[in-house]
Amino acid sequence: MEPPPDYPDATTFEIAYYYWYHYWSYVTVPTLASVFVALGYNTRFFRAVIVEELNKDYVRTARAYGVSNRKIMIKHVLKNAMIPISTRIIITIPFVIIAGNLVVEKFFGIPGVGLVTYDAITNGDLPIVKAVVTWTAALYVLALIITDIVYKMIDPRTSYSQ
Asked: Domain containing 63: what range?
């Protein structure tokens, strides 16, 4: 690794610190922008799923039997709410990688896949647009496969055979 131009006699640790410090100083604000946008939508969705589960008959029955609220929430409600929540989280990953980065990279001027995609769309560069669409589709297929695996881990009763 080359030492920074303004620090020619730096040790390896100092060089690594210099580059990581500058990397984090450039990445912090765009990352926070992506996280806070997704956080608002996902928080509302998670709350709606948990409220829906809390209004189901099995929760009312468990309360009638005297089961504590903590045990109902952890053992029953969260277990049943994890399927739509995990779906939402896993399916949003390709969106954040491609489409979410497009807006953030354009706004902050970061060179990356999103900015290249934006330039390709505005300039009519179809091979790049096709490549991005193909990779996005591949990421969605991978996300769906991971979602199926996570379903089976959350609820072993889930079956894929007919």
From this structure: 12-154
Encoded tokens for 27:
């990445």
How many domains in the chain? 1
| 16-32 b/e (C-beta count within 10 Å ≥ 16 → b) | eebeeeeeeeeeeebee
pLDDT in tens, 14-43: 777 777 777 787 778 888 887 887 788 889
In a domain, 80, yes or no: yes
From residue 130, how far is each of 19, 98, 112, 127, 162 by CA, in Å?
Answer: 34, 13, 16, 5, 36
Is the pTM higher than 0.85? Answer: no
User: Helix 78-95 vs helix 126-154: angle between axes, to the nearest 10 degrees?
Assistant: 170
Please list, in sequence order, all residues whose beta carbon lies within 8 angstroms of the beta carbon of residue 155, skipping any fewer than 6 positions away: 79, 83
Is the Cβ–Cβ distance between 109 and 121 less than 8 Å?
Answer: no
Is position 6 within any domain? no
Other beta carbons less than 10 A from residue 81's beta carbon: 20
Reported as a single tens digit per residue, the pLDDT across 70-85 is: 999 998 899 889 989 9
Q: Report yes or no on 96 lying in a domain.
A: yes
Residue corresponding to tokens 């589709």: 137
| 162 is a domain residue | no
